[in-house]
Structure formats: structure tokens, C-alpha cells
Amino acid sequence: MEIKNAEFVSSHADVSKCPPPDKPEFAFIGRSNVGKSSLINMLTSRRNLAKTSGKPGKTQTINHFIINSNWYLVDLPGYGYASVSRDKRQGFGKMIEQYILKRENLYCLFILIDVRLEPQKIDLEFIQWCGSKEIPLCLVFTKADKLTRNQLNKNISVYSATLKRTWSELPSLLVTSATEKTGKDDLLLFIENALAD
Ligand code: GTP
Ligand code: MG
User: Which ligand does the CA of 56 lie closest to?
Assistant: First the structure.
């Protein structure tokens, strides 16, 4: 599939104010700074469609982008950002939870994982929680450019083995680098297949 057109639609802190849920939607979530906004720019071939930053905590609302006039990509705030106040962190947590549980047109939640790190408790708990709520999900490893091929394969095997302890069937796993624009075709094919289902 080709993305011919991508436009910003809206930015809201409250899921009830988001665009009407009348089109398929794919959202990006993960720890702050994992590369959610960068991946949206990579996918849409737009340098600045979603705002990115070297500092965690850049995206603070639910951001909708309309693609090819008929489906949405959504950039969400990150979880696990330690440097904001507890109240604000809880606010983001609530916003994300409400979005995930209430957004009826959510075709798939892409959960982004920094491939450089060993499995993090916060990500594993989040993946588990999504599973318990039967949210359709796909795991997307980011920043693959930071590792050698060997390190990459090793980290992905460790992650898969960790997930297998609690998942009888593993969710789909994709590997990406926004910097090197790798994994784009796989991600677009995944979306295309989900749209066709
Ligand atoms: P929040 O909105 O704060 O939750 O962060 P985010 O997950 O949207 O991350 P963002 O896309 O803003 O990227 C965070 C930092 O990681 C930026 O400095 C990006 O340039 C960098 N980054 C993102 N993706 C990649 C990647 O694939 N490779 C490398 N090397 N750096 C990346
Ligand atoms: Mg962001």
C-alpha cells in the first residue's frame, strides 16, 4: 500500500472529543521517547507531520492524522515518563487507558519497544494489560539502526522468549528504524491486511 496523502486532523486530551469513530484507526503507543512520532513521520514520508523531540514527553495529547482520506493514524503520549509530576503522569495514563478501551474503531494498537533494551517491566505489564482487554495489537521494535544484526537478532529472541512465558500465541513482531527508514513496507503491509480483513 502507498500513502498518497497524510493530514493532521486534531489533537485532544479527551477521547470523547476525538473525530467520529467512523473510519479504521491504527495507533502508536509505547514508552516516552521510544520513537512513536518519528515512526508516523517515516510511514507517511513527512518530516514533521508528528512533532518529535530528543526529550521524552513531547506528545501530550491524542493526535489524529487522516491517511488517503479513509483511515486514521494516531500518535499517543508515551507512558513511563518519570520526569513529569505524578499528577500529570496519572493524567496521561488515564487518557491512554480511556483511548484504548473506548475507541471502537481501533483496528490495531502498535506497541513500540526500544530494541536496544532488555524487556522492561513497564512494557511487559502494558502488553499484558492490553492482552487481558483483548486489544488487537502488534509489537514494533524501534531504533534497529543502533544495533548490529547479531545484537538485533539476540534481543528479539530474548523478547520473544520472555513473551512466550505468558502468551500461548505471540503477537506479530515488526522491526523498524525511523532513521534508516527500514520496516516501512512491513508495517504498511500489516495495515493493508488489517484493513482488508
Ligand atoms: P514522546 O512523544 O515524548 O512520548 O516520544 P516519541 O515516542 O514520540 O519519540 P520521538 O519520535 O519524539 O523520538 C524520540 C527520539 O528518538 C528523537 O530524538 C528521535 O530522533 C529518536 N528516534 C526515533 N526513532 C529513531 C530510530 O529509529 N533510530 C534512532 N537512532 N533514533 C530514533
Ligand atoms: Mg511523540
Answer: 1
